[in-house]
Specification:
The protein is 72% helix and 0% strand. The protein has 152 residues and is an all-alpha fold.
Length: 152
């Protein structure tokens, strides 16, 4: 079952069971996917799982940033709403790599570029993010790659 099919099925279930937060979150996700489909000018062709994953990751990142901003502004009510949406969206992400697994992946990805130093940072991050799309946190990867390349 594709991501889109799974989300559609869960959307219908949420509608039937009157799960307001899940329904609203999935509706926003479906709208974002439809907008992406229009951007790509393929309104008759459904998004591939890879493209849908990109939309999903963007939605997750937006929620994480909103939570941080709302907590900083003392708006815990809004942060809690975003947190609930984030939990729902994360159900559709693949299993996340542990920090130790991420470090091992980064060590392996950095090995060919150690002689280039910090110039290779973008290449290494891109290769890791592409290979492990949805399984790693971009911020963690960025910090770990930077630290590894600086160490030499």
């Amino acid at each position: 079952m594709s991501i889109a099919e799974r989300i559609e099925k869960d959307y219908v279930e949420a509608y039937k069971h009157k799960e307001k937060t899940r329904l609203e979150t999935l509706r926003l996700l479906k709208t974002a996917a439809k907008n992406r489909q229009v951007e790509l000018m393929q309104s008759l062709v459904p998004l591939s799982d890879d493209e849908y994953m990109s939309v999903l990751l963007k939605q997750v990142k937006q929620r994480q940033e909103s939570i941080e901003l709302y907590r900083g502004a003392g708006r815990d009510d809004l942060a809690d709403k975003e947190q609930a949406e984030l939990v729902i969206l994360q159900e559709y992400l693949p299993k996340q790599l542990t920090e130790e697994e991420v470090m091992a992946v980064i060590e392996e990805a950095c090995a060919p570029y150690l002689s280039e130093g910090m110039k290779a940072m973008g290449k290494v991050i891109k290769s890791v993010m592409d290979k492990y799309k949805g399984q790693v946190d971009g911020k963690l990867v960025s910090e770990a790659v930077k630290a590894r390349l600086q160490k030499g």
